[in-house]
């Protein structure tokens, strides 16, 4: 009995190879043209790197408030910070003549030369935070400095003032409102639909600031809510810094009860 050793498909292979050889070679495509991005596009991309989510914006604003030697910093948010972030402080305020360039990129009061970086003590110095916010949100600043009879309010968009500063009533310090965060970045906004999670991140971040700045009063709440969400954390965190973890965590401790009574 003879065994067939020849593959039945072998006869088809030469035809396939011949057909492949007859196909024309694909010519390489022309390289794409390099062009400059529009400045607004560049700034918006850069802003998305600096301000990645609502807690990023709150962090930058709180650091500015601390650099302004504030002793009280109040944060109000809506929809986890997407609809509204409002940070108010009692710091030294912003001079009227500085408002024109306040939200331009790389404008800062923290340093003048590169060598100043060797002795920098402030939290912010790059001059990018406020500018970045104006490219991805609607920003309004209300401020008053010591000795002024009234404050000024001005809105910013894409790094520049939308109008001249308007005189207004104001309390000591600065209030910055960031509204409709990522209104022009649909993809980014879709990834931030969990407002409870974003709010929790903000409260957690402020609580961390509170333990490092025990002489500053922090508060955080949602719009329409009278409850101060950070006060309970601050009492516990500051008690830990004075008394240690075990004592501060014991709510029945007479020391903790005394601190809570007089704060």
TrEMBL record:
GO terms for biological process: mismatch repair. GO terms for molecular function: ATP binding; ATP hydrolysis activity; ATP-dependent DNA damage sensor activity; mismatched DNA binding. InterPro entries: DNA_mismatch_repair_CS (IPR014762), HATPase_C_sf (IPR036890), MutL/Mlh/PMS (IPR002099), MutL/Mlh/Pms-like (IPR038973). GO terms for cellular component: MutLalpha complex. It comes from the Eukaryota. Belongs to the DNA mismatch repair MutL/HexB family. This is DNA mismatch repair protein S5 domain-containing protein. The lineage of its organism: Eukaryota, Viridiplantae, Streptophyta, Embryophyta, Tracheophyta.
